[in-house]
């Protein structure tokens, strides 16, 4: 039975899987979109959504939780670029998604990979800017305004 088994193993042992997911999350935050397989994308989505939720809160405690999730705990990892990812997360993405209740990523299917036939997808961060809605006027008012402008 698979009770309380909510993570895909991705064919790797525990440490390798955690490192893979952290690297996928860092690359997605840094570049905005990445190309990977469907199973990796679904697992990385969980981590990225949690990180952006921490960034929306913006407190020092949530920053430490995000650093822990990204495994930023040695000086070498701070120099390798993970510190920059954390800064981008809290300075740009957190405020940008402040009014969005969730669903920060989307998965777009690209087809099958040539070498092994695995399902290839692109996972990307959802655009923050919402399109402005035009207020529709009744046809009679629009024609009256158009005639007034013509005169």
Feature tags:
151 residues; alpha+beta; 3-stranded antiparallel β-sheet; extended
Folded structure, characterized:
The protein has 151 residues and is of the alpha+beta class. Helices cover 54% and strands 13% of the residues. It contains five helices and three strands, in the order αβαααββα. A three-stranded antiparallel sheet has the order 1-3-2. β2 and β3 (119-125) form a beta hairpin. α2 runs antiparallel to α3 (60-69) and α2 (38-57) crosses α4 (75-96). The protein is extended. The model has no long low-confidence stretch (mean pLDDT 85).
How would you sum up this structure in a few lines?
The chain is α+β, with helices and mostly antiparallel strands. It has five helices and three strands. The model has no long low-confidence stretch (mean pLDDT 85).
% residues in beta strands: 5-15%
Shape: extended
Strand order of the largest sheet: 1-3-2
Structural class: alpha+beta
Helix content bin: 40-55%
Q: What's the β-strand tally?
A: 3
Query: Roughly how many Å is the radius of gyration?
Result: 21 Å
Q: How many helical elements?
A: 5
Secondary-structure element series: HEHHHEEH
> Could you give the distance between the termini?
77 Å
